[in-house]
Amino acid sequence: MNTYEYKTIKIESKGFFNTSIENDQLLNEYGAEGWKIVSSFAEQINGITSAVYYTFMRENKAN
Question: What whole-number distance in Å separates Cα of residue 19 and Cα of residue 24?
């Protein structure tokens, strides 16, 4: 039976014009390690996004 492990990270928003490709590089690193995004959630304060949470999963290699 396959089992899975999960990881959730938070990426702080720096504003639309201050966003860099560092976030894409980080997400690509997780992808290269076998992690797949299964959920994302934007945290908002007064209608402004302050952070995005990404939940990843991958097959547990320990089994």
Answer: 10
